[in-house]
Amino acid sequence: MKTFRWDIRGQGKINIVLLHGWGINYNIWDAIINTLSSKFKCYIIDLPGFGKNINYPFMNIKKLTNMLISKLPKNSIWLGWSMGALIINYMNIKFEKNIHAIINICYSPCFIQKNDWVGIPINILQNFFNQIKHNYYKTISQFLKSQVPINKFLNNNFILNNIIKNLLIQPKPSIFTLEKYLNIIINIDLRKYLSKFTTPSLSLYGELDMLVQHRITKNINKLYPKNYSYIIKKSGHIPFISHPEATVQKMLLFIKNVIKN
């Protein structure tokens, strides 16, 4: 049996578990991990089939969430970006008592466009998948650069280039892995569970994000009273790279309130 691996950074009393998004490994967190690990104990996860767990076999979302909750510390704060947040919220259905709080970044309980829901047209995802199959490294690099507007005052071009370098030195995930996780994004719809959730939750959105549009916050907040949503100005789908200080500031304030209560 393959060993499931993760990295631990920091010595804080509060545990934070970080899950990356689709197609990308845990190096995506490089812009904020030093700040977070200076205050918390961070468990940085590569999902099965990515990064350090490139050879760990894919498992369906039910088995995946069972495995994650069994291996990571109980009562942690779970931080997820995009698909990573979807997996965490799915886990919250069954294991809510084991999750202290959730921080979502650019997350939707239903990523796909529906008649009654603002989401991603499925053909957009399929086209992106086809581009990744043709040239993984080029497509991921172009996507990341498209989501992080260059700002010389924030020095984010330097930060982004380093992140891309660290992301892409890892072995690329297989087409099988990418397709299986894409099916999770396409098929999982958590909207009916929102009204049942009681876990404190922070959801951060990018003002300019066209994949997960912040318009969904009204519906989410109405259904999920313990969720607080905040829109980060002038940011796209990866605000923790384009606007790391604003992103972390909101996280820290949320965590402070959660611990206080």
Strand order of the largest sheet: 1-3-2-4-5-6-7
What is the CATH topology classification name? Rossmann fold
Mean pLDDT: 94
What would CATH call the architecture? 3-Layer(aba) Sandwich
Q: What fraction, in percent, of the residue positions are helical?
A: 40-55%
Q: Shape, please?
A: globular
Order of helices and strands: EEHEHEHEHHHHEHEHH
Number of strands: 7
Major sheet attributes: 7 strands, mixed
Strand content: 5-15%
Could you tell me the radius of gyration in angstroms? 17 Å
Low-pLDDT windows of residues = none
Q: What's the CATH class label?
A: Alpha Beta
Q: How many structural domains can be distinguished in the coordinates?
A: 1
Protein name: Pimeloyl-[acyl-carrier protein] methyl ester esterase
Domain AB hydrolase-1: 16-244
InterPro entries: AB_hydrolase_1, AB_hydrolase_fold
Report a brief summary of the structure.
The protein is of the alpha/beta class and about 260 residues long. The chain has ten helices and seven strands.
Keywords:
261 residues; alpha/beta; Rossmann fold; seven-stranded mixed sheet; 7 strands; globular
Please, could you describe this protein's structure?
By secondary structure, the chain is α/β, with parallel strands linked by helices. The chain has a single domain, classed as Rossmann fold (3-Layer(aba) Sandwich), CATH 3.40.50. The protein has a 7-stranded mixed sheet, sandwiched between helices. Helix 1 links the parallel strand 2 and strand 3. Helix 2 packs across helix 3.
